[in-house]
Amino acid sequence: MTQVKAWAGYLLPKLGQFLFVVVATYTLVFVLVHFLPGDPLIAALAAKGGASTVIDPAELDALRVQYGLDGTLWQQYFGHLIAAARGDLGVSISTGVPVTEMIARAFPFSVQIASLALLFGVTSAVLITFLAYAAPWPWLRQLLLQIPPFGIAVPAFLSGLLLISVFAFTLGWLPSAGARSFDAAILPAITLALPVGALFFQVFSSAVLEAQNSPYVFTAVAKGVPPRRIFTKHLLRNALLPSITILGLLIGYLAGGTAVVETVFSRDGIGRMTVNAVLARDINVIQGVVLLVGAIYALVNLLVDVAYGFIDPRTRIGGGVPSRARLGAKK
Amino acid sequence: MIEHGSGAKAGSGAKAPAATSDADDNILVVRDLYVSYATRSGSVAAVRGISFVVPRGKIVAIVGESGSGKSTTSQALIRRLASGGRIDSGSIEFEGRDLGPMSERELRSIRGGRIGFVPQDPSKSLNPLMRVGDQIAEALRLHLKLDKAAAATEAVRILDEVGLPDPDARATQFPHELSGGMRQRVLIGIAWACNPQLVIADEPTSALDVTVQRHVLDNIDELVRRHNTSVVLVTHDLAVAADRADYVAVMSNGEIVEQGTTEQVLSSPTHEYTKKLVESAPGLASRRLTPSLTALGEQQQSSAGKLFTHTRRAQPAGLAAASGVAASAASNGADSAEATNILEVSNLVKTFALRRQGGGSQVLRAVDDVSFVVPRGSTFSIVGESGSGKTTTARIAARIASADSGTVTFDGTDVTSLSGEALRQLRRRVQVVYQNPFGSLDPKMSIEKIIAEPLRAFRVGDRTHRAEVARELLEHVSLSPSLAQRRPTELSGGQRQRVAIARSLAIGPELIVLDEPVSALDVSVQEQILQLLVDLQVQFGLSYLFISHDLGVIRQISDHIAVMRFGKVLEAGTAGDVMSNPQHEYTRELLAAIPGQRAV
Questions:
Q1: A327 lies in a domain?
Q2: Which of A198, A278, B25, B54 could bond to A151 as cystine, CB 3.0-4.6 Å?
Q3: pLDDT of A302 above 80
Q4: Among B585, B587, B570, B567, residue whose Cα is nearest residue B369
Q5: Which residues form the ABC transporter domain (chain B) (predicted)?
């Protein structure tokens, strides 16, 4: 019972923060969209039909109602907020399809490459870090530590095109575009994994190399623990603590950062949908996507906070200690 | 032991009886060991040709101050040096085999299995994310090839053996749930887990309270007896070595300058450095320090014309009515116009709310109804172990922290609720010197700026005047004025603490609160700083509120002593009474725990 209370006391403020971030994101986008010069609906219709489009005022009013852009700003603000809470993000101006439906269609494709990218990126970062840690010669270690920054330095449209020309056109191993089959996701995921893995590597490897000189690692060495076991049992979890924060940021980045990769590989996905929506001045879609990304971001940070408790017993809430031990501590 | 360094041939040392006996009796033989570290400016020799032996079942202490190479030696013995370190030459023979040419794989079977290691800092030497039982079991599984369940059971038995209460519950706890002493016991348990022939203990108790230190060392003694283990005990504390070791090797500058049986080395030290070390060890032979002759001489001439008197006169009339005459009054030994007690605190209470596991909070009474008076011109000391509330009390007395209730009276004026500018003005008369001279000085400021900063804060004098004062103060704390433009990073710990003292003197205070001012320093430096404090006290008519955990140090400087534990003053009185006729059980325990009693 006390444990439930402790968890509630820990989680409720975090949930409050989560809601605050989502509402704040919504508000910010709403303000930006509505206080930009020009009428958003007219801008969108102009983008759709060309600059010389002529619209009958009565028809315009009807369209306003259809896209939920009628009424005062306050009515719109709260109306959209309440609708969003019910899962209704309005209708796309350029396609006429409900935004929720568009997101539901594109989202799985993005999740697919984003999670693959995360998997590739983190795995290779941990692997390279281990090799650098176990490297018998200092020059090899230095060399290994210098490789990952390339992942940040090379832009995605370049690395993507390089991967396509080698693996799709020259070797013919993987498809160059589309999203129909699973292997079509591999090249875009690798492209995306390069910067993600490199950023993760920067934090993770320095945490490992710093922990390597820590007294508890000395204790482990003095115990006779072999290097690989020191890495997996002692260094890995300790180095994960600072890395988890950056992992949360990276997931947030992936939620909205797939645009270039999806364009290069002409895949469906949230990123490409956003690009199209911006070009079409489709404010309902833009609002929906930003709200989605903001929610994912806040949710991931919430999970990161909870994950800390699982990894680090020092920040664990209640029940981390068996009850017997707690009785012992009181004695 | 092999005598080395004074020209004697290795193995023929007449002093150490063990050296003449058969080599088989020695578990460890170190010959002519050289260790160096590669730095940017080339290679630096840390250990320069040391030789010693460890007889089976005996404790050999390696004593030295920071930078003497003793820790490097201990790490070299298991061939695990900090990065950049390498063994240049010499041999380390463990049970007749040289560790030098061994492969890492062979070394791993020796480390933890046949040579245990007790590291220095219990707060950082355990993996924070691993249950302590698992950390012991890890060694058991590696070397004794026990299965998981057997290792867990054995780990609990070991925890019991090293004296942890409720060992099977403790085994499932994480390091942060254990006290420092308990963590060190866990580390001792790891070292002894696989019943090694040799254990290297690198400052095993220097981070612990004195009563805990005693129990932990007793525990090591018992393990040594029971398992017939040999121990290399690395320590900065000669008194600990005197109590516990059969043989002592004294290191200085990477060389062993003297070695022999403990009795020989301590009763008739031959090397100059050892003599100095024996003299200055507070645990071994401490007495109240008296002002040196030069200090008494300067006291006479400091009555007029000095820069400090300017400083004092420059104080605003309001608060400093009494302090304007402080310098002259104190130096004349007269206390006419002033309160006889510079500081009186009564019924201080300070509580902290602790957040407990599983929600809810608990109130900790850090300071619980504490009262004492500090007579003018004397040293009042508070002694206690960590968590006793001594530092909180001192901070309240200096008005850095505020109490929940109780009063602080400074020089007859109630200063309990001073705030704003009035509180700032109080800082002219009450200054603080902190424990850590590495953290308390801004690394980016020059020494001159650091010392003159209080003057600048109170707008005393112009820039050249302040520079002069700073230089004069440097002389007073026995530092060369040529250091004025240096940065703190270029100074040693002792020098830094002198700078911190000079800074506290700059504004001409009457009371200085010294919070563990020598705890971070080497013993020989400790003595110098304490002597300096005693000299300055006479020169400037200062009163001290001195905080320490070390009764040896307290004995050297105090006129009055209060013993604190769990926020309460258990016993207070003159230094002589408390030290020679302790009334409270805990005071007796503290006194008994001072190391160095076996030797003298």
A1: no
A2: A198
A3: yes
A4: B567
A5: 30-278, 343-591
Residue A331 lies in a domain: no
Q: Chain B window 49-78: which residues touch A at a Cβ cutoff of 8 Å? A: 78
Do residue B359 and residue A219 have CB atoms under 8 angstroms apart? no
Q: Which two tokens stand for residue A13?
A: 């403020």
Q: What is the mean pLDDT of chain A?
A: 81
Residue ranges of chain B that CATH labels 3.40.50.300: 1-114+222-281, 293-593
Query: Which residue type, as a one-letter code, is found at position B50?
Result: I
Please check whether residue B435 is in contact with residue B529, taking contact to mean a CB–CB distance below 8 angstroms. no
User: Which range of residues forms the domain containing residue A216?
Assistant: 105-272
Query: Which residue in chain B has the smallest CA separation from A233?
Result: B130
**Mean pLDDT, to the nearest integer, of B151-178?**
90
A-interface mutation test, from B121, B177, B206, most A Cβ less than 10 A away: B177
Please report, as a single letter, which amino acid is at residue B566.
Answer: F
Interface test with B, best of A219, A230, A315 (most B CBs within 10 A): A219
Query: Same domain, yes or no, for A261 and A184?
Result: yes
- Tens-place pLDDT, residues B426-454: 999 999 998 888 888 888 899 999 999 99
From chain B residues 108-167, the ones with a CB under 8 A of any chain A CB are: 108-113, 116-117, 119-121, 124-130, 135, 138-139, 142-143, 165-166
pLDDT-derived band of residue B312, with 50, 70 and 90 as boundaries? Answer: very low
Paired residues of B44 in beta bridges: B37
The total number of structural domains that make up chain A:
2
Q: Do B130 and A233 touch (CB under 8 A)?
A: yes
**Is the ipTM beyond the 0.90 threshold?**
no
User: Average per-residue pLDDT in chain B?
Assistant: 83
Answer for the pair B380, B545: CB distance below 8 angstroms, yes or no.
yes
Same domain, A178 and A258: yes
Which of the residue ranges A134-148, A169-183, B246-260, B311-325 would you say has the lowest mean pLDDT?
B311-325
Q: Under CATH, which number does the domain B1-114+222-281 receive?
A: 3.40.50.300
d(C-alpha B97, C-alpha A19), whole Å:
67
Q: What is the pLDDT of residue B20?
A: 41
The superfamily (CATH) of domain B293-593 is P-loop containing nucleotide triphosphate hydrolases (3.40.50.300)
